Amino acid sequence: MFGNRVVIPCNLRQKISNLFHEQHPGMLHMKILARSYMRWPKMNKEIENNVRLCEACQLVNFKHISRVIENLRTCFIVFGLPGEIVSDNDPPPSPAQAICFLGVHKIVCIQWH
């Protein structure tokens, strides 16, 4: 036990991680869910790798990003281009994506803990 969480042995980590990932909850939600029940060294990194390698998660992420871009474009039409965008949990796009799609040169992401 680690506090009120179970420490998962090495030989069961992938199997347990796959169980938490079955519904494709996304990286952030999967980390929150896993942290509330279990613990092992480098768990966050392993969850990140599992989600990044999952085609279904990538498709959901692509659809989400497309919706965000369309909503931002609508705001930009009404209010003009911002000099800075602040996001509170999503990973930032690459600088090339930001400039190409959004015309924005600075994106700030704030991680709330």
Automatic annotation (TrEMBL):
Pfam families xrefs: Integrase_H2C2
Enzyme Commission no: 2.7.7.49
Signal peptide as annotated in the record: none
Primary enzyme class: transferase
Organism: Dryococelus australis
InterPro entries per UniProt: Integrase_H2C2, Retrovirus_Pol_polyprotein
PANTHER family, per the entry: PROTEIN CBG26694, PROTEIN NYNRIN-LIKE
Protein name as catalogued: RNA-directed DNA polymerase
